[in-house]
Amino acid sequence: MMSMTMAGDARVRERRRAVPFFCAYHMGLKPGRRMNERRSETTRWRPAYVDCYAGHLMLCVIAILLLSIGDAMFTLQILALGGEELNWFMAVLIDESVTKFVAVKMALTALALIMLVIHHNVRIIYTMRVRHVKYAILAGYSALIGYELCLLNLAGKL
């Protein structure tokens, strides 16, 4: 006859695999087995606000901030080589002071990211949430940095 302790010890083994670094389930790209929300129909379209945010969310925000700093640096280098700022608001700030330009650019980016992080579960349209917009912003900033690097390469200053 099998004792209860032996049966208990058999269930202790770890059966789960390690979570990979890039997981589509954590990024919200794949819904997993839960296709529908766990909330009732009356609160289905309301956002769920949380106090603790996931690490991948903060990684995305930090990456956007770093790309924004890189964008400001590359913009100033392009302007020094004879380029022109097409954003009239930033052009006015650059004419006044480079320090003011960088400070306002970083402040606007940080405030926008704070609002996007707070509302990251809000549904924009049926399947698209604010967190997906953050990933689109990250991709857009990456493309912008690539474009600025190409401009600097064409100017021969890279």
From TrEMBL:
Pfam families: DUF5658
InterPro entries found in the cross-reference section: DUF5658 (IPR043717)
Residue ranges of every copy of the DUF5658 domain listed in the record: 62-152
Coiled-coil ranges from the UniProt annotation: none
Keyword Transmembrane: yes
Keywords: Membrane, Transmembrane, Transmembrane helix
Residues passing through the membrane, by range: 53-81, 101-122, 134-155
Name assigned to this protein: DUF5658 domain-containing protein
